């Protein structure tokens, strides 16, 4: 676009918020007042909003509203000249950049095309307010880039502009790991980084984080991994991370039980402040588990869906609060019992589908005074005698525990009056458990009480006919897909809403 001298024109929207912002930040003696006149004009075949920004000085007695409607840009310029109006170009760089900072990210990129001064102002001062870039946030992307989704080229352009100001960056699996070179070079002040790649190359992560000495949280999840030849070359990942990083998530669901590099264990040793570690879907060698067991700073550990030979070292994590070893083989009674004995702060345990666990260690769960969340899906040895030992539980999932009956569920409802989530699908329970839950939750009478969500089988929900007995603190959901919901909206009749989803008829029960 050619540079405009009297009236700077830009095809952008939503600039009305800048009124008077310039004069609040202008250090010159002239008190400038921003006034904006939005002109709509047809350009080629596209209808765009033409935004004309005009500056009026206090010492010029001119009413901007007197400017008549005109049909072309030249007439606008003539009337501005006649009224002795000053343009936005009289602003200094600080003030101009502050004005333009009210534009969205996409609009700022377009604004740089107006003239050299605008480009310089935005480059130097116009990106400092962009500290969070979350590509998962649909509203954020829509607001800043219109209806179209950001291409990788768009994202690169944004990183070149505002990368040095970013503290949080989340990348969706629309992009491949080639973008790491731009993140490494320009996003050096990040404290939180989330990367979901649809194509992942190990070599893109070698020394990728060497400049990010402020990084505290990193999450890398790849969907399609490339160039794998036996042992992976992921040693560059941990080596370049700062030693005081606090949270690491590294998962590869696309390739179950892929091997980590030989140097992974030694690289993991250097982290002295690690509080949270997630390594899911990997094959974890014994040495890696031993190193993890020495990380006594850990409070959160997730090694779900991993292949593990010996996990006994994990019982040394005496500060652990959250443990997820679901779908991990070789998790046995000794490990579970030692965790209960040694980890006095443990609040969450997920041992779903750990088939080697027996009643010997399950009976020991009730001795933990800190345990609040227990996920034990698929454990056939879990029965009423064990569940009745639990107290003050907030979350209990016992899906497919066929020996659980109404006796156990009614017991946990009585022993844990503030329970918030209960999965009883595919158990031996009946509608008696649902009726008991409805009666007990009626005692939750104030705002401090949260709702109880019960997940049950479809056929069990269909048999439950006492719908009017459900209070506002109880929600009953169908197992897994959660298509059928019973809840209370404080009215007295039932609406049956039939929808079709992917060719299947779905019923929604709404209590009004």
Task: Give a concise summary.
The protein has 512 residues and is of the alpha/beta class. It has 17 helices and 24 strands. The strands form four sheets. The protein has a 15-stranded mixed sheet with strand order 5-6-7-8-9-11-13-15-16-17-18-19-20-21-22. Strands 1, 2, 3 and 4 form a four-stranded antiparallel sheet that branches.
CATH topology of the largest domain: Leucine-rich repeat, LRR (right-handed beta-alpha superhelix)
Residues in β-strands, percent? 15-25%
Fraction of residues in helix: 25-40%
Tell me the number of helical segments per DSSP (H or I, 4 or more residues long): 17
The CATH class of the largest domain? Alpha Beta
User: Got a strand count?
Assistant: 24
Give the domain tally: 4
**What does the overall shape look like?**
globular
Mean pLDDT reading:
76
CATH architectural name of the largest domain: Alpha-Beta Horseshoe
- The radius of gyration is 30 Å
| Major sheet summary line | 15 strands, mixed
Which ranges are low-confidence, i.e. pLDDT below 50, for 5 or more consecutive residues?
A: 1-68, 227-233, 482-512
Structural class label: alpha/beta
């Amino acid at each position: 676009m050619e540079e405009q001298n009297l009236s700077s024109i830009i095809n952008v929207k939503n600039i009305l918020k800048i009124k008077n912002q310039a004069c609040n930040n202008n250090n010159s003696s002239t008190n400038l007042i921003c006034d904006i006149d939005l002109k709509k004009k047809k350009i080629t075949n596209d209808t765009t909003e033409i935004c004309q920004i005009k500056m009026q000085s206090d010492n010029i007695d001119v009413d901007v509203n007197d400017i008549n409607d005109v049909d072309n840009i030249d007439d606008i310029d003539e009337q501005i000249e006649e009224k002795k109006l000053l343009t936005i170009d009289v602003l200094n760089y600080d003030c101009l950049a502050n004005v333009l900072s009210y534009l969205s990210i996409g609009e700022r990129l377009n604004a740089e095309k107006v003239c050299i001064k605008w480009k310089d102002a935005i480059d130097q001062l116009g990106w400092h307010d962009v500290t969070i870039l979350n590509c998962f946030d649909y509203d954020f992307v829509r607001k800043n880039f219109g209806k179209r989704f950001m291409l990788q080229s768009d994202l690169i352009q944004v990183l070149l502009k505002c990368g040095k100001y970013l503290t949080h960056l989340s990348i969706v699996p629309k992009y491949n790991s080639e973008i790491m070179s731009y993140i490494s070079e320009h996003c050096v002040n990040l404290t939180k980084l989330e990367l979901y790649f649809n194509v992942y190359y190990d070599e893109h992560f070698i020394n990728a984080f060497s400049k990010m000495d402020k990084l505290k949280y990193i999450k890398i999840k790849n969907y399609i991994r490339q160039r794998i030849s036996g042992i992976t070359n992921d040693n560059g990942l941990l080596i370049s991370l700062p030693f005081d990083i606090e949270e690491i998530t590294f998962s590869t669901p696309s390739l179950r039980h892929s091997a980590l590099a030989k140097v992974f264990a030694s690289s993991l040793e250097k982290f002295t402040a690690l509080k949270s570690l997630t390594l899911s879907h990997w094959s974890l060698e014994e040495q890696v588990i031993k190193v993890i067991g020495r990380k006594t700073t850990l409070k959160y550990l997730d090694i779900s869906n991993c292949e593990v030979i010996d996990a006994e070292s994990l019982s040394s994590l005496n500060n652990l609060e959250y443990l997820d070893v679901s779908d991990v083989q070789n998790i046995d009674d000794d490990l579970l019992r030692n965790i209960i004995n040694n980890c006095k702060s443990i609040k969450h345990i997920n041992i779903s589908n750990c088939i080697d666990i027996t009643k010997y260690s399950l009976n020991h769960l009730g001795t933990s005074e800190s345990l609040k969340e227990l996920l034990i899906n698929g454990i056939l040895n879990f029965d009423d005698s064990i569940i009745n030992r639990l107290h003050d539980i907030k979350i209990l999932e016992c899906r497919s525990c066929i020996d659980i009956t109404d006796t156990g569920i009614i017991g946990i409802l009585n022993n844990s009056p503030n329970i918030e989530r209960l999965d009883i699908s595919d158990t031996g329970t009946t509608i008696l458990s649902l009726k008991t839950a409805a009666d007990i939750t009626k005692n939750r009478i104030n705002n401090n009480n949260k709702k109880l969500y019960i997940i049950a089988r479809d056929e069990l929900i269909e048999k439950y006919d006492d719908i009017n007995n459900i209070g506002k603190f109880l929600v009953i959901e169908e197992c897994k897909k959660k298509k059928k919901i019973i809840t209370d909206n404080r009215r007295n009749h039932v609406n049956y809403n039939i929808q079709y989803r992917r060719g299947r008829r779905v019923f929604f029960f709404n209590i009004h």
